[in-house]
Write a structure and sequence with these properties.
The protein is mainly beta. The protein contains no helices and twelve strands. The strands form four sheets. It has a five-stranded antiparallel beta sheet with strand order 1-2-3-4-5, with no helix packed on it. A three-stranded antiparallel beta sheet has the order 6-7-8, with no helix packed on it.
Amino acid sequence: MWEIFNYIRSNGSSSAKTSDTIKRYFGTEHGSEIEMTPGAVNIKGGSKEPLSLSIDENVGVTLKSPKNLNLNADDDIIIKTPASVKLKAQSQIGVTKTGTESGFSVETDMHIKGNNVIKDGIGSSNLDFDNFDPKTGTNKKEIMVKQNHLIIC
Protein backbone atom coordinates (compact mmCIF):
# COMPACT_ATOMS: atom_id res chain seq x y z
CA MET A 1 0.00 0.00 0.00
CA TRP A 2 1.32 3.42 -0.97
CA GLU A 3 0.57 6.63 0.86
CA ILE A 4 1.21 10.03 -0.65
CA PHE A 5 1.52 13.12 1.53
CA ASN A 6 2.04 16.75 0.56
CA TYR A 7 1.72 16.10 -3.15
CA ILE A 8 2.10 19.26 -5.23
CA ARG A 9 0.47 19.26 -8.63
CA SER A 10 3.11 20.08 -11.22
CA ASN A 11 0.86 20.92 -14.21
CA GLY A 12 -1.63 23.17 -12.40
CA SER A 13 -0.27 26.43 -13.79
CA SER A 14 -0.94 25.36 -17.38
CA SER A 15 -4.65 24.71 -16.76
CA ALA A 16 -7.06 27.67 -16.86
CA LYS A 17 -9.21 26.08 -14.16
CA THR A 18 -6.42 25.29 -11.69
CA SER A 19 -3.86 28.03 -12.32
CA ASP A 20 -5.52 30.55 -9.97
CA THR A 21 -4.44 29.47 -6.48
CA ILE A 22 -7.31 31.37 -4.80
CA LYS A 23 -9.86 29.09 -6.49
CA ARG A 24 -10.33 25.43 -5.64
CA TYR A 25 -11.41 23.18 -8.46
CA PHE A 26 -12.41 19.55 -8.68
CA GLY A 27 -13.30 17.93 -11.98
CA THR A 28 -14.01 14.38 -13.02
CA GLU A 29 -13.04 12.53 -16.18
CA HIS A 30 -16.63 12.75 -17.45
CA GLY A 31 -16.85 16.54 -17.07
CA SER A 32 -18.60 17.13 -13.74
CA GLU A 33 -17.08 20.10 -11.90
CA ILE A 34 -17.07 21.80 -8.51
CA GLU A 35 -15.43 25.21 -8.37
CA MET A 36 -14.99 27.03 -5.06
CA THR A 37 -13.95 30.67 -5.03
CA PRO A 38 -13.90 33.20 -2.18
CA GLY A 39 -17.39 34.44 -3.19
CA ALA A 40 -19.04 31.50 -4.93
CA VAL A 41 -19.53 27.77 -5.24
CA ASN A 42 -20.36 26.45 -8.71
CA ILE A 43 -21.42 22.87 -9.44
CA LYS A 44 -21.92 21.57 -12.97
CA GLY A 45 -22.84 18.15 -14.32
CA GLY A 46 -20.81 16.47 -17.02
CA SER A 47 -23.46 15.93 -19.70
CA LYS A 48 -23.80 17.79 -23.02
CA GLU A 49 -26.48 20.10 -21.52
CA PRO A 50 -25.57 19.94 -17.83
CA LEU A 51 -27.60 20.73 -14.77
CA SER A 52 -25.81 23.49 -12.84
CA LEU A 53 -26.02 25.20 -9.47
CA SER A 54 -24.30 28.47 -8.66
CA ILE A 55 -24.25 30.05 -5.20
CA ASP A 56 -22.68 33.46 -5.65
CA GLU A 57 -22.54 36.24 -3.05
CA ASN A 58 -22.88 38.92 -5.75
CA VAL A 59 -25.56 37.28 -7.92
CA GLY A 60 -27.49 34.96 -5.59
CA VAL A 61 -28.52 31.37 -6.26
CA THR A 62 -28.92 30.19 -9.85
CA LEU A 63 -30.19 26.73 -10.70
CA LYS A 64 -30.31 25.72 -14.38
CA SER A 65 -31.77 22.57 -15.88
CA PRO A 66 -32.11 21.59 -19.54
CA LYS A 67 -35.14 19.49 -18.52
CA ASN A 68 -37.85 19.69 -15.86
CA LEU A 69 -37.04 21.33 -12.55
CA ASN A 70 -39.11 19.91 -9.69
CA LEU A 71 -39.34 21.25 -6.15
CA ASN A 72 -40.75 18.66 -3.75
CA ALA A 73 -41.17 18.93 0.00
CA ASP A 74 -42.89 16.89 2.68
CA ASP A 75 -44.04 20.22 4.13
CA ASP A 76 -44.37 23.77 2.76
CA ILE A 77 -42.27 25.39 0.06
CA ILE A 78 -41.90 29.05 1.01
CA ILE A 79 -40.64 31.82 -1.24
CA LYS A 80 -40.06 34.98 0.78
CA THR A 81 -38.62 38.28 -0.38
CA PRO A 82 -39.10 41.97 0.42
CA ALA A 83 -39.07 42.63 -3.34
CA SER A 84 -41.01 40.68 -5.98
CA VAL A 85 -41.22 37.08 -7.17
CA LYS A 86 -40.90 36.78 -10.95
CA LEU A 87 -41.89 33.73 -12.96
CA LYS A 88 -41.01 33.73 -16.65
CA ALA A 89 -41.98 31.12 -19.23
CA GLN A 90 -42.00 30.88 -23.01
CA SER A 91 -45.60 29.66 -23.34
CA GLN A 92 -47.50 29.25 -20.06
CA ILE A 93 -47.33 29.61 -16.29
CA GLY A 94 -49.79 27.32 -14.52
CA VAL A 95 -50.63 26.64 -10.89
CA THR A 96 -53.09 23.91 -9.89
CA LYS A 97 -54.04 22.31 -6.62
CA THR A 98 -53.29 18.57 -6.55
CA GLY A 99 -56.35 16.41 -7.12
CA THR A 100 -58.52 19.30 -8.38
CA GLU A 101 -58.91 21.53 -11.40
CA SER A 102 -58.65 24.67 -9.23
CA GLY A 103 -55.87 27.07 -10.07
CA PHE A 104 -54.79 29.68 -12.56
CA SER A 105 -52.84 29.87 -15.78
CA VAL A 106 -51.22 32.73 -17.63
CA GLU A 107 -50.81 32.49 -21.38
CA THR A 108 -51.84 35.45 -23.51
CA ASP A 109 -54.83 35.67 -21.13
CA MET A 110 -55.23 35.08 -17.40
CA HIS A 111 -57.46 32.11 -16.57
CA ILE A 112 -58.79 31.57 -13.03
CA LYS A 113 -60.54 28.27 -12.35
CA GLY A 114 -62.29 27.20 -9.17
CA ASN A 115 -65.61 26.66 -7.44
CA ASN A 116 -65.26 29.97 -5.61
CA VAL A 117 -62.96 32.88 -6.34
CA ILE A 118 -62.25 34.97 -3.26
CA LYS A 119 -61.75 38.65 -3.97
CA ASP A 120 -59.46 40.68 -1.74
CA GLY A 121 -59.83 37.98 0.92
CA ILE A 122 -63.25 39.29 2.02
CA GLY A 123 -65.81 37.39 -0.05
CA SER A 124 -66.36 34.88 -2.78
CA SER A 125 -68.22 34.59 -6.05
CA ASN A 126 -68.71 32.06 -8.80
CA LEU A 127 -67.54 33.22 -12.18
CA ASP A 128 -70.85 33.22 -14.07
CA PHE A 129 -70.54 34.89 -17.45
CA ASP A 130 -74.12 34.05 -18.51
CA ASN A 131 -75.49 37.10 -16.63
CA PHE A 132 -72.65 39.43 -17.54
CA ASP A 133 -73.30 42.51 -19.70
CA PRO A 134 -70.05 43.44 -21.49
CA LYS A 135 -71.51 46.76 -22.70
CA THR A 136 -72.01 48.09 -19.18
CA GLY A 137 -69.28 46.00 -17.58
CA THR A 138 -71.49 45.08 -14.62
CA ASN A 139 -73.38 42.19 -13.11
CA LYS A 140 -74.17 40.84 -9.66
CA LYS A 141 -70.76 39.22 -9.42
CA GLU A 142 -68.83 42.51 -9.65
CA ILE A 143 -66.83 41.37 -12.66
CA MET A 144 -65.66 43.92 -15.20
CA VAL A 145 -64.12 43.54 -18.63
CA LYS A 146 -62.07 46.43 -19.94
CA GLN A 147 -60.16 46.27 -23.22
CA ASN A 148 -60.37 42.45 -23.42
CA HIS A 149 -58.98 41.94 -19.88
CA LEU A 150 -60.83 40.28 -17.01
CA ILE A 151 -60.76 42.35 -13.83
CA ILE A 152 -62.18 40.92 -10.60
CA CYS A 153 -63.04 43.75 -8.22
